[in-house]
Design goal:
511 residues, alpha/beta, Luciferase, domain 3, GMP Synthetase, Chain A, domain 3, 8-stranded mixed beta sheet, 4-stranded parallel beta sheet, 24% strand, binds methylmalonyl-coenzyme A, binds adenosine monophosphate
Length: 511
């Protein structure tokens, strides 16, 4: 082991001495040992090293969740390059933007997407495109198979870039949040102690691995504790319930908890071995919190974070730290600063609602190649403006009450209305549109579009939905589209989205 600040080195140092122990168990019954992870990551790291990539080269991956996809992520860290995860739901226009913006030296995609992804990548100057499929086929592993299974972990400084995570922008353009090895490791170490990771913990991993929740919070948590993961390639509530008796930790977005509650098998007995249920990425409704406690006897721990900052606040894990309070996201994590300020930047009083700003070793250094945007998002005294609106109570618990950014969170995925409106407005026959989020019993918020047709244009909901299918990720596609003669505007000419949200508030009402 070297003394580098490489995140992988810290994770690797926590693995059990006996590398033959199981590290990962898949839903198909395949078991990967710690040695398999060690060898697999070494071979892929050696493949990357053999390509003669420049320092700081980006490796973009749009691949299905699999143990090998996990190894690819770890291998990129191990080799000292920069990982760029992409949601598998992204369509060509979205992927093209990321590739042009990040200029990855290597792109890894599913075999079935090779044709269009490689065309985009080679056009943008990417030198290497590999494929990786769920069934372990594809050129990445074929090439890695010829590599040595010994690899010395690349030496990194805490400030060296480890990942770029794209988060959508309010103006429609995605921004790449640059996270360093130090950002990610400091947060992982804080969560290890705060969430009381202990010997014998087993994590059920059922989240996608292209966003912070599944990729960092869950994976770093387990690997930094040498804990086995029960690895599910997709969330299926029955499959989770079946495995609860053999696990101790579960992490999910609120939609996962809503769906688990619909399973009759979710009982106190099924959860008897469980230690911790964590929720985040979107607000957990107090009703869900309560129903889960009544059904299982477990109190979900809700926490709050962002792609730019990893985790910021958390309800207590250990009883001596206090109670887990429904509707709150808990106090700031140790080492993290959270403050609430008014529009003029002055500090809010206890319980006064204002803008949430944060600071800490976990906070990113800036947006990839967007120095002006980065400067706008930080205050003069170095605090990051989250775009969330909240209040801190006398005990320091944060409650998120809204967002100053025009953002919809659907099933834990972020949808920026401006981006969806941009795609709708480009469709023939559309004069303008407004995209809003309204309460949805399953996804928390459901995306809805109000579309104003051009005079004489023949538009309908089905045609608009069909046209969007090819253009944007499925979770961004409006669940309903309404044709309207005009959009309500205030005196300044701004569309009154609040009014639209009120009008459609009961659209997806349960039942
Ligand atoms: C799927 N669909 C959705 C969503 N997911 N619609 C709206 N919102 C969604 N999130 C739609 C698809 O468009 C499709 O519609 C239909 O559901 C079936 O698609 P499928 O992929 O089979 O759905 P699923 O497997 O049931 O997925 C639902 C899900 C998934 C499991 C809740 O969305 C999910 O894994 N969400 C977790 C997201 C996550 O990890 N977020 C963390 C971000 P159609 O049939 O019409 O095509 S990290 C973060 O936010 C920060 C840092 C933090 O604090 O953690
Ligand atoms: P992302 O850009 O995907 O990292 O999403 C970050 C945003 O998700 C935050 O700025 C919040 O608006 C939201 N978020 C994350 N966790 C929570 C939570 N527990 N409650 C409410 N909102 C949350």
């Amino acid at each position: 082991m070297n003394d580098s600040a490489n995140l992988f080195a810290a994770l690797r140092a926590a693995w059990p001495a006996d590398l033959e122990l199981p590290a990962l168990e898949t839903e198909h019954g395949a078991v990967y040992s710690w040695r398999d992870l060690e060898r697999g990551t070494a071979m892929i790291a050696n493949l990357l090293a053999s390509l003669g990539l420049p320092e700081g080269a980006r490796i973009a991956a749009q691949v299905e969740k699999s143990p090998e996809a996990l190894m690819l992520y770890l291998a990129v860290l191990r080799a000292g390059y920069v990982y760029l995860p992409l949601n598998t739901a992204y369509q060509a226009a979205e992927v093209e933007y990321f590739i042009r913006n990040a200029e990855p030296a290597v792109v890894v995609c599913s075999g079935r997407n090779f044709q269009w992804v490689s065309r985009l990548a080679f056009t943008a100057g990417t030198k290497h495109v590999f494929t990786l499929n769920e069934d372990r086929s594809g050129s990445l592993l074929e090439r890695a198979a010829h590599m040595s299974d010994a690899h010395e972990i690349a030496v990194k400084q805490p400030g060296d870039l480890g990942c770029i995570v794209y988060t959508s922008g309010t103006t429609g353009r995605s921004k790449g949040a640059m996270l360093s090895h130090g950002n990610m490791l400091s947060n992982a170490l804080t969560l290890k102690s705060h969430w009381d990771w202990r010997p014998g913990d087993v994590l059920i991993h059922a989240l996608p691995i292209f966003h912070v929740h599944g990729l960092f919070v869950a994976i770093h948590g387990a690997l930094l504790n040498g804990s086995k993961m029960i690895w599910l390639s997709r969330f299926e509530p029955g499959a989770v319930v079946e495995r609860l008796p053999r696990a101790t930790v579960f992490m999910g977005v609120p939609t996962l908890y809503v769906r688990l509650l619909a399973e009759p098998g979710l009982t106190r007995e099924a959860c008897a071995n469980m230690r911790l249920f964590v929720s985040g990425s979107a607000p957990l409704l107090p009703d869900t919190f309560k129903a889960f406690r009544e059904r299982t006897g477990h109190t979900i721990l809700e926490r709050y974070g962002m792609s730019e900052t990893v985790m910021l606040t958390s309800n207590p894990c250990k009883p001596e730290h206090g109670e887990r309070i429904a509707g709150t996201v808990g106090p700031a994590l140790p080492g993290v600063g959270v403050r609430i300020v008014r529009d003029d930047g002055s500090a809010c009083a206890v319980d006064e609602i204002g803008h949430v700003q944060v600071k800490g070793p976990n906070v990113f250094s800036g947006y990839w190649r967007m120095p002006e945007k980065t400067a706008e998002e930080f205050t003069a005294d170095g605090w990051f403006r989250t775009g969330d609106v909240g209040r801190l109570d006398a005990k320091g618990y944060l409650t998120i009450v809204g967002r100053s950014k025009d953002l919809i969170i659907s099933g834990g995925y972020n949808v920026y209305p401006a981006e969806v409106e941009g795609f709708i407005n480009e469709l023939p026959g559309v004069a303008e549109s407004a995209v809003i989020g309204v309460p949805h019993p399953d996804f928390g918020e459901g995306v809805v579009a109000l579309v104003v047709p051009r005079p004489g244009a023949a538009l309908d909901e089905a045609a608009i939905t069909a046209a969007l299918r090819e253009r944007i990720a499925n979770f961004k596609r409006p669940k309903r589209v309404f044709l309207v003669p005009e959009l309500p505007r205030n005196q300044m000419g701004k569309v009154q989205k609040n009014l639209l949200r009120e009008q459609h508030a009961a659209l997806f009402a349960a039942g």
